[in-house]
């Protein structure tokens, strides 16, 4: 009996040591990691490193005068110093005199543009979701502004909105209305940049919401109609809830894009007149590339802009999740 047990013990295989979870995960999904690694490297070089360097510059007093540079054969070393959070205190305390006026206009610009993007885009999506003659042609024509690069659109609208010889003023003069200096008066310039940005952004909202509308089951509309619901009640009880997932995503993306919409303002008005149309991102650009270049100040603006957008995205997604849970609950 003892001999049999010892023989079985000798014949039993040695226990296999447990595989490490990380190593096992990499071994099972090595192909996915191989495909993702180049993208991660590109993002690290093009996004993460500039972001980290920008945050570092925001903690210094780097300007054009004390940054390292090469003049001919002479190399001038950098002499800027680490000053901690002094730039942030200067900006957030209002000492620079530009941050809070720019922030107020940036918020106004973003809210107005995104609201018009969504409202007009939803209206066009509802229209194109119906059975219309030449619906495909209408879709193509309405998507065209989205296909135009922003800098091309900005130069085209400059010709339209030009004070002297502009197409819009020429039309106004024909109907007996005096021309307006669209790009030279603060209020008119703000209206102009909003109008151009809405023209550029509505097609994206329209296409996204049209796709969302086509996923709403038609049975829900039929059931609501059989219950005697009016068109407005069907829109409020069926369409809007059905569009909630798409709406949440496109509003978040539209807010981030509009908040950082550099080409329209920089190329249409240059931030003028007198800085009236400057938003935070164009203010940061001016600090970095105009006059005595204040690299630290521009980096501080960039870090604050990124922080605000991250906080907004986090709070907005939490709010959407809470709303969704309340509806499902």
From TrEMBL:
<feature type="transmembrane region" description="Helical">
    <location>
        <begin position="30"/>
        <end position="52"/>
    </location>
</feature>
<dbReference type="InterPro" id="IPR000515">
    <property type="entry name" value="MetI-like"/>
</dbReference>
<feature type="transmembrane region" description="Helical">
    <location>
        <begin position="140"/>
        <end position="160"/>
    </location>
</feature>
<keyword id="KW-1003">Cell membrane</keyword>
<feature type="transmembrane region" description="Helical">
    <location>
        <begin position="295"/>
        <end position="316"/>
    </location>
</feature>
<dbReference type="Pfam" id="PF00528">
    <property type="entry name" value="BPD_transp_1"/>
</dbReference>
<keyword id="KW-1133">Transmembrane helix</keyword>
<protein>
    <submittedName>
        <fullName>Sugar ABC transporter permease</fullName>
    </submittedName>
</protein>
<dbReference type="InterPro" id="IPR050809">
    <property type="entry name" value="UgpAE/MalFG_permease"/>
</dbReference>
<keyword id="KW-0472">Membrane</keyword>
<comment type="similarity">
    <text>Belongs to the binding-protein-dependent transport system permease family.</text>
</comment>
<keyword id="KW-0812">Transmembrane</keyword>
<feature type="transmembrane region" description="Helical">
    <location>
        <begin position="191"/>
        <end position="213"/>
    </location>
</feature>
<feature type="domain" description="ABC transmembrane type-1">
    <location>
        <begin position="103"/>
        <end position="316"/>
    </location>
</feature>
<keyword id="KW-0813">Transport</keyword>
<feature type="transmembrane region" description="Helical">
    <location>
        <begin position="107"/>
        <end position="128"/>
    </location>
</feature>
<dbReference type="InterPro" id="IPR035906">
    <property type="entry name" value="MetI-like_sf"/>
</dbReference>
């Amino acid at each position: 009996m003892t001999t049999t047990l010892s023989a079985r013990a000798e014949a039993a295989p040695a226990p296999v040591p447990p595989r490490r979870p990380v190593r096992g995960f990499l071994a099972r999904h090595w192909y996915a990691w191989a495909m993702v690694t180049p993208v991660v490297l590109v993002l690290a070089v093009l996004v993460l490193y500039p972001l980290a360097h920008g945050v570092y510059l925001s903690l210094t007093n780097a300007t054009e005068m004390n940054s390292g540079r090469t003049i001919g054969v002479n190399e001038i070393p950098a002499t800027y110093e680490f000053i901690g959070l002094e730039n942030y205190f200067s900006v957030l305390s209002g000492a620079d005199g530009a941050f809070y006026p720019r922030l107020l206009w940036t918020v106004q610009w973003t809210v107005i543009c995104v609201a018009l993007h969504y409202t007009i885009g939803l209206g066009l999506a509802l229209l194109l979701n119906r059975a219309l003659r030449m619906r495909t042609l209408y879709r193509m024509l309405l998507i065209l502004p989205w296909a135009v690069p922003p800098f091309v659109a900005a130069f085209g609208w400059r010709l339209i909105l030009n004070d002297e010889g502009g197409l819009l003023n020429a039309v106004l003069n024909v109907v007996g209305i005096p021309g307006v200096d669209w790009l030279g008066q603060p209020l008119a310039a703000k209206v102009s940049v909003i109008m151009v940005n809405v023209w550029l952004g509505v097609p994206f909202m329209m296409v996204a919401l049209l796709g969302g509308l086509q996923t709403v089951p038609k049975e829900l509309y039929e059931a609501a109609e059989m219950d005697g619901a009016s068109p407005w009640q069907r829109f409020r009880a069926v369409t809007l809830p059905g569009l909630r997932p798409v709406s949440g995503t496109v509003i978040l993306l539209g807010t981030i894009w509009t908040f950082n919409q550099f080409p329209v303002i920089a190329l249409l008005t240059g931030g003028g007149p007198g800085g009236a149309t400057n938003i935070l991102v164009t203010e940061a650009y001016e600090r970095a590339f105009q006059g005595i270049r204040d690299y630290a100040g521009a980096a501080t603006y960039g870090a604050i802009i990124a922080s605000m957008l991250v906080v907004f995205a986090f709070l907005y997604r939490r709010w959407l999740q809470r709303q969704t849970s309340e509806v499902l609950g």
